[in-house]
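From the methods appendix. Each design record in this collection lists the tokenized structure first, followed by the designed amino acid sequence. Records were kept in a plain field format so they could be parsed without special tools. The example shown here is representative of the layout used throughout.

RECORD:
FOLD TOKENS (323 positions):
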């Protein structure tokens, strides 16, 4: 039977949570589905968990860590379903959640991509299932520390989408790759993820490209997953470096021409100020190292022949990715 949905999970150092994630799928999705797991050269037994305990899943084991975008694209090329469902390995989908996700996507074909509602392990809302599209104003708020001083403020931290608890269905700027359903023909029309994004930012790039051709991403509160934020992430400083590299790349790819250098300059100012505050406070939250490593992120991710869907140079860090 041809599956209705292809559930794609990119695993890296996710052994314990991967077992929970895969084990929850039969109750989360009653439609015919297939599971494709890409193990990104994990140092633990993530691949072994899939091989021994979930033999019906398709397991792809590239010889080295591909990064998130390239791994998803690899799985998508093997997928047979009409829908591609991206799911983090550190998530546990609640009963009926993926059915609700796909029902909503079918009800709103102009969405392009549909996400859901994520909860932390204590049952509290984790707002990272969606974000606002980065803008010159949101970057200014980052540079001036307004978004830090007033977190989840509708105006001063606009990418957070304010205090909205993700408890109703609405259009959003960006649906994150932690939980997302994309119709296969839409995915193929847009060429999937741009592989120059090693990790972080590929979902924002896809959303911007979707909006440019008329799609309007959405989320539904009925698709609920528990998300163990950071379960497979690297160090805080390394994550900050990768996030900043993605932000610079997004600005250079999608900001209006007049504002590209302005946005990159604002990002530099924002990191510099946080590094100073980190040194003064002694908190050691990764910003000082991010500032020292600015030579890594300030150039952004390089394009290969100027084309999306291509992977960057081999000196990119061999790290995993979580949403």
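DESIGN:
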């Amino acid at each position: 039977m041809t599956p209705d949905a292809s559930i794609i999970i990119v695993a890296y150092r996710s052994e314990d949570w991967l077992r929970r994630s895969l084990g929850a799928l039969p109750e989360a999705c009653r439609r015919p589905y297939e599971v494709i797991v890409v193990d990104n050269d994990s140092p633990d037994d993530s691949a072994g968990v899939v091989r021994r305990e979930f033999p019906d899943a398709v397991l792809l084991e590239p010889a080295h860590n591909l990064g998130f975008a390239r791994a998803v694209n690899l799985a998508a090329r093997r997928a047979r379903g009409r829908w591609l469902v991206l799911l983090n390995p550190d998530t546990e989908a609640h009963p009926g959640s993926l059915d609700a996700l796909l029902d909503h996507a079918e009800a709103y074909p102009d969405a392009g991509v549909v996400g859901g509602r994520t909860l932390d392990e204590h049952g509290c809302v984790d707002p990272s299932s969606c974000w606002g599209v980065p803008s010159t104003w949101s970057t200014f708020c980052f540079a001036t520390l307004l978004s830090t001083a007033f977190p989840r403020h509708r105006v001063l931290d606009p990418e957070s989408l304010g205090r909205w608890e993700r408890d109703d269905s609405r259009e959003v700027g960006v649906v994150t790759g932690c939980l997302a359903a994309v119709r296969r023909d839409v995915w193929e029309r847009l060429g999937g993820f741009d592989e120059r994004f090693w990790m972080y930012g590929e979902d924002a790039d896809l959303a911007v490209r979707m909006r440019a051709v008329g799609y309007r991403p959405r989320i539904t509160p009925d698709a609920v997953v528990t998300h163990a934020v950071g379960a497979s992430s690297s160090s805080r400083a390394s994550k900050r470096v990768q996030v900043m590299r993605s932000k610079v790349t997004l600005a250079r790819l999608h900001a209006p021409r007049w504002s590209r250098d302005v946005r990159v300059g604002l990002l530099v100012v924002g990191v510099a100020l946080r590094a100073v505050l980190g040194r003064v406070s002694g908190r050691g939250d990764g910003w000082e190292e991010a500032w020292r490593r600015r030579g890594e992120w300030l150039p952004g991710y390089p394009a290969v022949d100027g084309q999306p869907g291509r992977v960057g140079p081999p000196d990119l860090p061999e790290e995993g990715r979580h949403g």
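APPENDIX NOTE: Confidence is low (pLDDT under 50) at residues 308-323.
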